[in-house]
Amino acid sequence: MSGLESLYQELILDHAKNRRGFGLTEPGARSATVHQRNPICGDEITLRVELSDEGDRVASVTWEGAGCSISQSSASMLVALLQEDGGDNGMPTADADALIAQFREALRSRGKIPLDEETFGDAAALSGVSKYTARVKCAMLAWVALEEGLRQA
Amino acid sequence: MSGLESLYQELILDHAKNRRGFGLTEPGARSATVHQRNPICGDEITLRVELSDEGDRVASVTWEGAGCSISQSSASMLVALLQEDGGDNGMPTADADALIAQFREALRSRGKIPLDEETFGDAAALSGVSKYTARVKCAMLAWVALEEGLRQA
Amino acid sequence: MTLPFDVDAARADFPILETEIDGHPLVYLDSGATSQKPRAVLDAERDFLEHANSAVHRGAHTLAAEATELFEDARVTVAEFVGAEPEQLVWTSGATAGLNLVAGSLGYAGRLREGDEIVVTEAEHHANLIPWQELAARTGARLRHIPVLDDGMLDLHAAADLIGERTKVVAFPHVSNVLGIVNPVAKLVTLSRAVGALTVLDACQSAPHLALDLPASGVDLAVFSGHKIHGPYGIGALWGRDEVLEGLPPFTTGGSMITTVTLDRAEYLPPPQRFEAGTQPVSQAVGLAAAVRWLSAHDLPAARAHEAVLERRLRDGLRSIDGIRLLGDTDAAERIALQAFAVDGVHAHDVGQFLDSRGVAVRVGHHCAQPLHRRYGLTASVRASAAIHTTEEEIDTFLDAVSGVRGFFGVGANSTGARA
Amino acid sequence: MTLPFDVDAARADFPILETEIDGHPLVYLDSGATSQKPRAVLDAERDFLEHANSAVHRGAHTLAAEATELFEDARVTVAEFVGAEPEQLVWTSGATAGLNLVAGSLGYAGRLREGDEIVVTEAEHHANLIPWQELAARTGARLRHIPVLDDGMLDLHAAADLIGERTKVVAFPHVSNVLGIVNPVAKLVTLSRAVGALTVLDACQSAPHLALDLPASGVDLAVFSGHKIHGPYGIGALWGRDEVLEGLPPFTTGGSMITTVTLDRAEYLPPPQRFEAGTQPVSQAVGLAAAVRWLSAHDLPAARAHEAVLERRLRDGLRSIDGIRLLGDTDAAERIALQAFAVDGVHAHDVGQFLDSRGVAVRVGHHCAQPLHRRYGLTASVRASAAIHTTEEEIDTFLDAVSGVRGFFGVGANSTGARA
Ligand SMILES: Cc1ncc(COP(=O)(O)O)c(C=O)c1O
Ligand SMILES: Cc1ncc(COP(=O)(O)O)c(C=O)c1O
Q: Does domain A3-152 have CATH number 1.10.3080.10?
């Protein structure tokens, strides 16, 4: 697999086309809406996170935005991960925060720390991004937005 | 003669110590007073030129100022030259202007055009300055002041 | 008969052009962002630093005299390159600094007030836009803009209406860094002069490609950057007419631009020193002089002809690829070999990444021209920009790579199978 | 036991130190004006330009990514050198630009008004004086100064009286470029903090010679220049506390410091980018990082000890020569190896010329500190300033040359015969 093909795996291009969680839902009682922007390339995202009534779980994440296939698929994969790992009750916010931290560490590792599929699901396909320092911000965009949203909600 | 000794000939050091024309006379009917400054080294001169009644001759030049031995002796030598060549009536202003132009040309020649003693008297000792580009302004200070004074008077 | 331009000889002067990217020879089509430096520039700077380096305009020692001479000779050389006198050439750290100097100085001078107008274009680089926004905000002046037509040309009818007796400043790019179109300087100058407005030319993109005679152009002030014209970073120039520079107060202050300083006030030197506060980028000035000397040593008419061939090949090639939309696609104006475009269905960033995997370096994003991109309904585009060392083969490599983009990303007609 | 500093090894890194002046080996004692660059700095810059040069923070291509990384690594390296975080380090074109940025930004922010006071010292370099004069003139604030005592020390009693509730800014040099005395930063910070004034440290002369921990120093903002610390021209840094930088609006505007730009307004990035408008001096940042890395690779405590020996030898030597008057001659403070002096009866310019004929390069003039010279009744002085590569023998050569000055110019006791 060439460098380019490991960066743009089919899974990534699929997510970029069929974006999970795309389209904002109506804001709920315990929701926060965050706008993030990458000033370098103009990519942007508006992400809305809704917490469970107790405020300790991620009930739903939806988003809108425009950008490169890395940023779009990364947002889509994030939603997929939350849905799959969170099950019906939603993922505990503490777990989500931990995942974001781990994701950041791997992406900043310049290829040294891979994202394992067990933990990150489809998002593991983003491992290749960490070798492209200029693209790390693209992949982080939605995750940073969620981090901020969890803080605010 | 080393470079330094050709720059600082005895004649130059003598003039720097016994400065001709030093001390401003009272301004007369046809006089102009000019202040010139070398912002780089802080040398300054105040030069007063008095024209003949008809305004076509340099009746007298006096000056005050502080600076390096080159600037001080150059002013002194300029006064000496005007007195010696001008005789009792004073040098025609046109001749003075021509001398200043010639002096400038020689000093800017980087050692190519010497100042001949016939024309410049003691000031011919300043020939060596033209090899030291940083010092050309020092030697020119009084001459530029006179040029400006002749324009104003 | 003119001989064709010897591009291989020019290339041989650039060490970086030997780089390989992922096994592909580097095809550097990002000269519009920053240009590469020929060996002569690197050598001139190094030579200065190894043999003459010392503080200029100060001190009697031999090195200082040598350094001062090289520094001031550089000013003469660069001034000549744009048809100007050395006293009219102010060193700046770059074009952005030059434009800020002009806008800031006009502000400090109180030359603008409420009701006055500043006119720019819709095709402005942020460097020639935001300083005027700030000046307008500080003085109460109004910032207006000349619209860009669909084909990238300035709307001169609108310009004629906009530039009126309230107009105090008209600032515009000689060549837009997105559209590549040479703007009608003479016409804008005529309109501006008629109302007594000051004209400010952003010559960043023209200086590397067109013969400049700034005094003859009719503008009052102009700026350009060294790093875009094969010179060092950290240096650029502001050119101004004598009487215009004389009328401007300093923007920044400090050492080397003064005559007398007391604890309470300072008196300033005449231009250009008045605008050159502090230790100047001395070795960079020497390097920039080496750059324009390197350029001038070539048969420049032949080089321009070569670049014109590149321009046509670039534009025609892109036009013939499916799903490509060109920004500023017109034959009605002179152009430089720089072309921005969007690829249907593929984000500019992804296009850039794909091209990079073929060794082709282009710029992606808004190129510091967000308003212009917005005008075309885009947030980002891809820009290929050539230089004197670019070959036709490189343009072909680029075009070939672009043809593969939509297939790779699974967009458009032959989307499937491309990655099989 | 510490090993003595290996000055010969350090010297070997400087190509220019092999220069001969008129048959004499160059004795470069003008490092206070501008420093020489070790080979590591020249190589780092050239290597960058030959292998990685391209626009930073933009574009997806490989070179751009490499360049961006080297540029931001440079920020980390230089920030660490002064004990700071990279986000607190703003690239500027030099110290003068940094001081103008601070004064200009405070002005734009409307942080000063009539009745407010700005306090500087009588020992200010023009770069840390005139920007404050201009700010005062524009805002109606009053500029006051802490006097310098006869021995060169700041009058701290006066400072305590001056710094009061009207004081909004206190700006001062860490080390004066004429006196060589290390000023009492902690005391001035305490006085300033007590009244809530912003402190601005001019670290130009300390950065090359003292270990800096800017956050620990207590000041709010500090500047220094690359070219004085063995780095390139055209680069310097402004350091500021997070909350201080966050409170400042941009001084210059343009590309790379914005988030969203419309034709009418712009939104700005957080520090440090907010203050870095336009293309940055990228290769120079890389060069400056190489300079501080070169410095840090030495046994710095040993180097400081070496410089302390030079300082004593320089001052003691000058004291023992007839007709020499030292500026700032005190043992009561820490000092750097920099000494300004006047020679009775011989103008500074002539002294400099004489020393040059022996290969000794010193600075003559007012050293951009006219008020301080006026305070000592001088218009000019001679300044010798050493660097890490200066040897004791060089100081001796200098002293020997100085002893010959008055004789040559026919002044003082043994005036006659000297030139026979
Ligand atoms: C104490 C001091 N402050 C400020 C400056 C100005 O630095 P620069 O000219 O590099 O901007 C200098 C040196 O010239 C200096 O010695
Ligand atoms: C048209 C135009 N104007 C201004 C600039 C700003 O130049 P610099 O970033 O070198 O200051 C650029 C390049 O970035 C440009 O292309």
A: no
